[in-house]
From TrEMBL:
Binding site for substrate: R52, E66
Transmembrane segments: 28-47, 53-72, 93-118
Protein's UniProt name: Diacylglycerol kinase
Record-linked PANTHER family: DIACYLGLYCEROL KINASE
GO molecular function: ATP binding; kinase activity; metal ion binding
Residues bound to a divalent metal cation: E25, E73
UniProt-annotated catalytic positions: E66 (proton acceptor)
Keywords: ATP-binding, Cell membrane, Kinase, Lipid biosynthesis, Lipid metabolism, Magnesium, Membrane, Metal-binding, Nucleotide-binding, Phospholipid biosynthesis, Phospholipid metabolism, Transferase, Transmembrane, Transmembrane helix
Family: Belongs to the bacterial diacylglycerol kinase family.
One GO cellular component, as annotated: plasma membrane
A Gene Ontology biological process term: phospholipid biosynthetic process
Residues holding ATP: E25, E73, K91, D92
Length: 123
């Protein structure tokens, strides 16, 4: 059975994690802003349900990967590069993971939104 107090406590911990990321991670703040802009576009343009779902999933993917990247950075920072040279590689690979998802999300977003912008311009 669901324990309401335990659920609220878990939710509170999750929100505290989001606050920590917003406060400490510039990339996360930027990705939230870009995600909010995409949400505005979702509301403004007459997109199909499929396009809306794709955009929402891409926003969630990039934000979740940035969260995982932040977790890995904090974990491997506890080991310090002087202990093992792979620590820097782990951080670089995680950053590349977020970058890859962000670039492909931007390309997909442009594919979806450009026709609507062109339509606004009468082109």
């Amino acid at each position: 059975m669901l324990n309401p107090k335990q659920f609220l406590s878990s939710f509170s911990h999750a929100l505290r994690g989001v606050k920590t990321l917003i406060k400490t991670e510039q990339s996360f703040r930027l990705q939230i802003i870009v995600g909010l802009v995409a949400l505005v576009f979702i509301m403004v343009f007459p997109l199909t349900a499929f396009d809306r779902v794709v955009i929402l999933l891409l926003i969630a993917l990039v934000l979740a990967l940035e969260m995982i990247n932040s977790i890995f950075e904090r974990l491997v920072d506890t080991f310090k590069p002087r202990i093992h040279p792979v620590v820097g590689e782990i951080k670089d690979i995680m950053a590349a993971t977020v970058l890859l998802a962000s670039v492909f999300s931007a390309v997909i977003g442009l594919i979806i939104f450009i026709p609507h912008f062109l339509s606004l311009l009468g082109l």
